[in-house]
Amino acid sequence: MEGVTATNLGTVTLSAGQHAFRFTVTGKNDASNAYYFTVDSFVLMPAQTDDHTTPVTTSNAPEGWAKEDVIVTLSPTDSQSGVAKTIYSIDGADDVEGTSFTIKSGGVHTISFNSVDNAGNVEAAHTQQARIDKSAPVTGATVAPAQPDGSNEWYVHDVTLISDASDNLSGVSNTEYSLKLFGLHKAESGWPV
Ligand SMILES: [Ca+2]
After folding, report:
1. Domains of the chain with bracketed CATH
2. Pairing of β 56-59 and β 65-66
């Protein structure tokens, strides 16, 4: 500035944080009675480093079939600027911001999710499936031959028990059965009837 005499204060090394510092400029010109400019303090910020790393988001959704509601928690982390938001979508529906949700309906659901950090880096979307089957399988059984092959409603040859268990979602894992005998049975030559 014209007419200002600068004084070199030299080099001062400061740590990050708030420091007190004062310099004052005073004087006047023809159009004003007086003017002054004062700085009382300033904050020294650490140098910013660029964040080029995308966040990482994980999910606790179970890998296999669940027989009840699935409560999903998403856990985002970011190494530098921090997580700004996490977004998820269920079965292609509109994106929702948040980190926890519940899936209740039976079937195979597709979850997609990702996060954005405070520097604007967008994580590539993850896709995961949540499988829910709340209905029990249905089990029936038939015998072969269907009708007794002897007289008076007695079987005289081996009888085969045929199970026809079915399940409309997760499928049948295994079928158990027990056999009870009441009174005489015709197959005297061996077990089972
Ligand atoms: Ca980052």
Report:
1. 56-132 (2.60.40.10), 135-193 (no CATH)
2. unpaired
